[in-house]
Amino acid sequence: MQYGHFEEKNREYVITNPATPSAWANYLGSPEYGAIITNNASGYSFVKSGANGRIIRYRFNSVSADQPGRTIYIRDNEDGDFWSASWAPVCKPADSYKSECRHGTAYTTISSEYSGIKTETLYYVPLDATHEVWRLTITNTAGKPRKLAVTGVVEFTNHPNYEQDQVNLQYTLFISRTYFKGDHILQVINENFKNPNNERFFGVAGADVSAYCGERDKFIGMYRGYANPAGITDGLKNDLNYNGNSCGALQSEITLAPGETKEIIYLLGQKPEAQAAELIDSYKQSNRVEGELKELKRFWHNRLDNLQVKTPDDKFNNIVNVWNAYQCFINFTWSRAASFQYCGLRNGFGYRDTVQDIQGVIHLAPELARKQLEFMLSAQVSNGAGLPLVKYNHNPGHEDTPDDASYVKETGHPSYRADDALWLFPTIHKYINESGETAFLDYEVLFADKEEKASVYEHLKRAIQFSMDNIGAHGMPAGLHADWNDCLRLGKKGESTFVLFQLYYALRILKGYAVFKNDTEYAAWLDQKIAGTNGLINQHCWNEDRWIRGFREDGTVIGKRDDPEASMWLNPQSWGVISGAATPEQGVTTMDSVYRELNTPYGVMVMYPAYENHAFNGALMLCFNKGIKENGGIFSHTQGWAILAEALLGRGDKAYEYWCKASPATYNEDADRRVLEPYVHGQTIEGRDSPFAGRAIVHWLTGTSSAVMAGTVEGILGLRPTPDGIVIDPSIPGEWKNWSMVKKLRGKTLNIKISNPNGSVHGIKAVTVNGQKLDGIFIPDTVLKAENDILLEM
After folding, report:
1. Which among 217, 486, 519, 781 is annotated as catalytic?
2. Which of 88, 651, 670, 702 is most buried when burial is the number of CB atoms within 10 A of its CB?
3. Does the annotation mark 486 as catalytic?
């Protein structure tokens, strides 16, 4: 069933049926103030941290539409009928209630029409602000005057920490109280501490408050819910909270003549009383909301304009131009901190997650990527490893590490991971190629644990050395705590083929930088290591038609062709190609094996057959049912690497097939199967062994967004900048006969048109730049002007 559609012109996804198979969400805000809002206005808000900055509540793992969030109720004062400006929580019958939700880039608009009253509610966080705005416009479309009570409601948390608020009730039920301040409810936590950061507000501008409530239980009433709260059916009684649960409910009485429209603005945030009052007063200015919305759209659309494609596939265009790009920025900002599955318990950035997330925005905002790269480099330990979890209050030069009991106790991470610092290589390589800033190699950054600054080049050297210092019996990188797959524990001295390919890739990248810097002695050492690593790969890791997954500490091979379970693993096959270690013949052979054994109608499984009867002690994925997550599921993150591998092999048809299967938009007309939003990637899709194959889980915050974006941009679109130019070498489906791209590169605009009359899947035979034919597919900076017309003939 289809619940909505893409609207590329406005860069929105439009939901026309509010009864979606799960809560379809959007993100609002910035690193200073974040908010999640669904198509029915539920969700939660937080200041800086999803773990320690909660302002309003959301009840996780609930199937009920009866959720707190950002609810606006309308009650007809003449007949007592009431409804909500979003379909839920009241959920009026679909034959009498019309609803539409438009999720855009950092804003959401929900419209409704019921009983002769039309509403439109815009939700957003102004650019760089620390509060949110709900702008309600309400219109009387009936032929008679209407007397209405309009009530905006939020349920405050009693403590900014999620666990304290929801679990430690013997404490948090007795620290909160509310006050009515004329145009807003003020909530104060631990009032006796007199800390202004413990004050939250919910206010209204554009309408007088006729009644209010600051106590949730009085607003809801006994044996009721948000679908039929006593505060709406019986009216608000001006109750305030002292202990118990705080809320903010503000009622305004309005009269609308036929055809008349009125505007009411609600504001929510964490600010001291005086600042809250000043802010609310400022929204009484006309057109402020329109100005802020225009600024917000301009900001996001300008970012997205740095790459735009126009292909025969509208779904491809919508995902690449808008939603995959926007999701990359959301992951870049919030990592895995706050969604409807990540409940806010991770109070920091995962090293490998965040370094990979940077890759998704490099081509759109290289300056932003650089800033985050500096931050993650400062979380590299002086021994070359990365801190598994980088705290939000990270203090470079002064951090404990997994070698310290204090770090393990605070973060729960007992040791280093084999792959963390190796992710710096593709990310830094992409950044330098996109920005052209080779001087970044000389930029100095502190290490996490010592007041010692070193160049980025030295940081990369240390990362290589860490891998070299942690070697197993076959000379391959040791598994340590885990590699990318947290459920695969090969043992501290076990060995990972995936990490071996990462190391090979890293050695090649660093060799190029060593040559660039005339570091001849180190370049010669790297040549030896590259040759030695290649020898290890072919000596120990090749198994008939695949690369094995690795070795356990006792020497047992994981991922042999004749293993009864887990005989084929995706990541070694794709990374064999991406790293450049596989020969063309090996690449084709291994990826053909992937297609034969791991491919499904919904994507490529991470491994197969799933573990059930033959798992070893370190195969932690056995805890999952077969066909989900790491146990034979379609782990969506890995789809980007499969796409890139096929594209690098020149098999554009296969790359595009994998892209389509991974793309949420593919399932827009089959949304009940997918369940998650059809405009953003999820973490995992249920695989072959699941009775619900094709169902997606864990929305929004996933490395899938950056991995698929990188696979799409570098692989399918073939956009591969270098510090002194760009290579454009697409791998596409043969049916794309004529298509185009606009790319911004270092202040220059590239208007790229591709002609493919013969239906090729790969291979450029002619390149013309501003009327000048070039030899080969490399376009040097020297031939580029501010505006460029580029024609590629396949």
Report:
1. 486
2. 702
3. yes
